[in-house]
Structure formats: C-alpha cells, structure tokens
Specification:
This protein has six helices and eight strands, in the order αββββαααββαββα. With about 375 residues, it is low in regular secondary structure. A hairpin with a 5-residue loop joins strand 2 and strand 3. The longest helix has 6 residues. The chain is globular.
Amino acid sequence: MFNLKKSKIIKGLVGCVAIGLVSWLPGTASAGVSGPCSDCHTMHNSQNGAPMAFNNSTTPNRALTRGDCIGCHSGATALKGSNNNIPVVIRTVDPGGQGNGLTLAGGDFYWVATSGGANDTCGHNVKGVAGVDSNLGYTPPGWNATTSNGIANGAADWGTNQLTCAGTYGCHGSHTSTDNYAAIRGAHHGDNGTIDGLTTATSYRFLNGILGAEDSDWEYTVSSTDHNGYKGANGYTTSDNNTISYLCAECHGNFHASSAISNVSYQGAGASPWLRHPTDFSLGSASGAGYSAYTTYNVTAPVGAINPDTTTSVITPNSNDIVTCISCHRAHGTNHADLLRWDYSACNAGSANASCGCFACHTNKD
C-alpha cells in the first residue's frame, strides 16, 4: 500500500509537489513512500494524448509531479489515489459538513474557495485557493512580529504577501524559503517513520519542528480511540516550540501567552480570570467546576497531550488533557464561522447540546 505517512496533515496542502529530486539519487536513505509512482508522477504529462496533471493542465510540474500542492490535494472525495492514499483538503464538491469522514482532520478549504461560496470566515485564504481575506487583508489576526513565535523568527513581512501552503508565509515545510516547492522539497521521500521534529520530513504532518502522532487515514474514520494525537504542554514557555498551538502562534502570536512577549496583558499570562482563551494549558490545572468531567477523548473538541498517541481514549489531568488551538478550530476550514468545529451561535448556556464543543470542557455550563 502506498504510504504517504507525513502527508497526512492538519493543514494538508503539502502534496506531491513536495517530493524531492534528491530522493532519487543512489545511496540516499530508503524512501518513506511506496506504491505506484504514477499516483504522483508522470514522465511527460501525457497519456493517450491527454494531460496527466490532476487539473488537466498541459503545463508540467516540477519533479515530474502530476500537480502542485493544490493540484495533488484537491478532488471530489476526501481521499484519492490508487489506494485512497492521497488526502484531499480542497473538495471540488460540497462535502456536506466537516469531520467524521466528510472531511479530514484539518477540515476543508471548500467553503473559503470561490467554488464553495468564497466565505472568508470559513477558512484560511491560501493563495491559489481563495482570494485575499476581505475582512483581514494579508496580515494574520494576532500577528506579533516581536514574539519568538513569529514565522522565521518574526522576519516575515506580510505587506502584500498572501498566505501560502508552505514556506515563510505558509504552515508546512521550512520557513526559510518563500517558495512552496523549495520549502517542502524532499519531505515525502525523506519520511522514515520517525517524528522527532528535527527535519521537515520527520515533523508531524510536515509542520517543521512540530511533534504529534498521525492517524493512519487522516481521521477519515475517527472515534475516541481512532484519531490524531496533538502535542501540547501544560503551561506555555518559550522552549515549548514543538506543540501544535505553537505552530498556530507562528502567525497568531498574540493568541498564545508567552513570557517573551513584552505586553502580556492580552491573555493574562496565566492570571485569573483569563482575558483570552488559554492554549497549551491543562484542564487539570484549571480552577472551577466542570473541567474534570472531561474523561473520554471527545472528537468534537479534541484535547492535546504531553505525550500524544492515536489511540488515547481515557483522559487524565495534566497529561492528556491539554487545551490547544485545534480543540476549537480546524486548520484548513469548516462550514462554520472562524474555522470553528461547531456552530458557536448554537451554544446556549443551560441548554444541553452535544454538537457544541464548548460543553465538552465546560461541562457545568450546559
């Protein structure tokens, strides 16, 4: 079976374009992918007189791939390829909702893309997928170039630079290059099954430096014992730069408390009451009633873990009950405002609602 282990992503756009030519050189380490090369590559972009590119383009792609990030990871179904081995995060038809096989773990760009209605509140406005966000422009909300979380150590100058799949202005691959291909090059074939964050190839979902545990089908099937494992920390410090929330903070730094930020009043840096919702924070450390009732992993509002795995079902305080950005949001997009996993307007205190993820943690509020 074709194994694109590290292409099973939270943001999902790293695609076949990322396959590095270095992987073809004799003497290199064994490849982390196997199966039909034709799933991702075409020698001449031609078969029976028709283009082989996923988008039917006559223009060849680098590394003899059949598409760039967007081309490889778009399609009518959540999975494609000879063995359903390529995750799709840009559906060309309405998924009908998000999660539980309708979309993969990171959600889908369908609703923010032009074909899905171009709703800027429903997804990240990635270049080539959607236009510039009409509400926010180019600069991410919460951007703080003075924090240690800033992409490329705060060197990114958004200006007129739109969010991309990878690179300096993207989520996947190295932040040292502004080019998608260069940023992710070599990652697919460099995957050796290890997740240590030392290289893009050995990082969780090719999110450079980030740790986690990867569900084998990108959460096409998902349950309390079948899911991604998100790396978290109980109390954020500047050294905790391998959590999933740290990744988000690379663009949205003001939403992630840090002693390295000169003005910490926006969140309180752990003070009570909180001024913004905490991330990289254990429910077991939270004061107040209700949090301790989160005892079973809830895919509506998943929590992270200090040592994440893909089969966690029992939740224990200060270990695998870490609040993360991903607890409330999906990385690519959803059919709800602000990329939320649920309809926030349907959350009414005192009214039980299993589809409202707020009540998964705030169990005494429903």
